[in-house]
Predict the structure of Aminotransferase.
Amino acid sequence: TFEQSKTLKRLPEQFFAKLVQKVQRLKDEGHDVINLGQGNPDLPTPPSIVKALQKAAEDPVNHKYSPFSGHTYFKEAVAKFYQREYGVEVDPKREVSILFGAKTGLVEISQCLLNPGDLALLPDPGYPDYLSGMALADAKQILMPLLKENHFLPDYHAISEEDAEKAKLLFLNYPNNPTSATATKEFFDETVAFAKKHHLCVVHDFAYGALGFDGEKPRSFLQSEGAKEIGVEMYTMSKTYNMAGWRVAFAVGNPSVIESIDLIQDHLYVSLFGAIQYAAAQALLGDQTAVRELVQTYERRRNRFIKAVKEIGWKVDMPKGTFFAWLPVPSGYTSQEFADLLLEKAHVAVAPGNGFGCTGEGYVRVGLLDSEERLEVAAKRIGELGLF
Ligand code: PLP
C-alpha cells in the first residue's frame, strides 16, 4: 500500500457516503426506503437533448479532442442564454468557461485564486464541496452563518474588518442548498459593494438558477451592476435540464478569473466531449417548455409535501426555491439523531443539517426528489412516529 498525500488527507469526510450506505443496508433487508436524502434529480433529461447528443456522437469531428477551453458555439449559446434569461451581456470569448459540472469549477476556483493559508468566506450551512476546494488549496475558511432571522442570507456587518480585508474569495449560493432560500436584488447589490470595498472575488453558485417558485424567477448575481468586475457565476445543466450525469456546466463573469479556470482545466482535462457540448448548447438555445414543466413539477411536489407535513403537526416554512425543504428538528434530538430515527423507524432518508456545517444543526434537508404520492407517504410515515 502507498500512503496518501497530505493534500488528500486534508479532504473532509464525504458526508453523503454514510447515508448512502445506511439506505442500501435497509434496502438490502427488504425495506421500502423513500430516499429524500441526496440531491440527485429523479427525472430524465428531455428527449430532444438526448437526441442531439446521439446525433453529435455519430459525427467524427467529436471523436477527436475538443478545442482547449471548449467549443465557441457552446460559449456563444451561454452568452445568448444569459442575454435571454437575465438581460446580461456576456462576451463568449473572454467571459465564459466550460466546466465538467459546477462541482469541478467550485472546487478548482480555490486552487486558481488562493495560496496556502489564504482565507475565503463560506456560507454555513453550505454545499460541502466548497470545503473540498479549501482543503485542496490548503486555504482556510471563515464561516458566515446563514440564519433564519436573516432569511438565510449572510450578514456582512457581522464579519470583522480584519477578516474581510484578509479574505480573497466569497462563496454564495442562491437559490440556496440546503436552506431553499432565495436572494434579493438588494442583497446582491450589497454583495458587490462589500466585495469591491474589500477586494474580494465573489463566486456565486447558481446551480438552482431555474428553480424558483410562486412565479419568482431567481436573480442572477450578474444582474447586479458591477458584478462582472468582481465575480463569476457557476451555472450547471444538472438541475435545469436534468443532466446531472452528463457533467456539464459553465462559469460566467470576470475575464481574469475565467482565464484562470480555463488554465487549470486545460491542464487537468483538455476539454469536455464535443457531443455533450453540442447537446448542451441545443438545450440552452432550444424550446424551454421542459424547464417550465420541471419547475411546475417541483412546485406541485413542494405544495403537496409541505401540506402533508403541516397536517402531521410539523411547523415548517415554505421553500422558495431549489428542490429541497429545510425543516426544523423537534426539540430533544440532534439533526443526526432525528435523521437516523426517520430512516430506521419510518424508512424515510433525509440529510441531517449538521452535514452542511454547524449552523445547520437543528434542521434536516428533505429532497423533493420522488413523486407527489411518495412524498405524501413519507410525511404520513413520519407522522405515525407521533413526534409532533
Ligand atoms: N452546487 C450546489 C449548491 C449543488 O447542490 C450541486 C449539486 O448537487 C452542485 C453545485 C453541483 O452541480 P454539478 O452537477 O454541476 O456538479
Observations:
- Residues 289-311 form the longest helix (23 residues).
- The CA atoms of residues 213 and 320 lie 6 Å apart.
